[in-house]
Amino acid sequence: MKMESTLVLLKPDAVRRKLCGEILSRFERKGFTLTALKLLRLTPAMAASHYQEHSGKPFYPALIDFITASPVVAMVLTGPDAIKLVRAMMGPTNPVAAPPGTIRGDYATVMSENIIHGSDSPASAQREIAIYFSEQELI
């Protein structure tokens, strides 16, 4: 197993519903190291950079509106196979398909507000972490 870091965003619905501590504690109990954490409100430019692969898709404007509407919690988690394990803990994007015991299975109710984002590859993790954190902010 290789050590890697991944970006996790607790989306506005998680912040609004006061689920951040519960979700973060799941990752800590799994053994991940929290190497950066902040509460922030995304600018439209940050959101566009983060979701660049969805630009031009029909749901893109609503996605940008949602993610910039209120604060998010951005964090970097580090551990063995962090990207794959975090995504498994999150569950499928569609909460209807997310099994109980996953974050989305336990907390998300609709696809457009699905509680959490996690990087899907090492390249995405590197690109996304740089959107939210400077080198000096990473432990």
TrEMBL record:
Its EC number is 2.7.4.6. InterPro entries: NDK-like_dom, NDK-like_dom_sf, Nucleoside_diP_kinase, Nucleoside_diP_kinase_AS. GO terms for biological process: CTP biosynthetic process; GTP biosynthetic process; UTP biosynthetic process. Its cofactor is Mg(2+). It catalyses: a ribonucleoside 5'-diphosphate + ATP = a ribonucleoside 5'-triphosphate + ADP; a 2'-deoxyribonucleoside 5'-diphosphate + ATP = a 2'-deoxyribonucleoside 5'-triphosphate + ADP. It is found in: Cytoplasm. It is an enzyme of class 2 (transferase). The active site is at H117. CDD domains: NDPk_I (cd04413). Keywords: ATP-binding, Cytoplasm, Kinase, Magnesium, Metal-binding, Nucleotide metabolism, Nucleotide-binding, Phosphoprotein, Transferase. One of its GO terms (cellular component) is cytoplasm. It comes from the Bacteria. GO terms for molecular function: ATP binding; metal ion binding; nucleoside diphosphate kinase activity. Residues 3-139 form the Nucleoside diphosphate kinase-like domain. HAMAP family: NDP_kinase (MF_00451). Homotetramer. Major role in the synthesis of nucleoside triphosphates other than ATP. The ATP gamma phosphate is transferred to the NDP beta phosphate via a ping-pong mechanism, using a phosphorylated active-site intermediate. Belongs to the NDK family. This is Nucleoside diphosphate kinase.
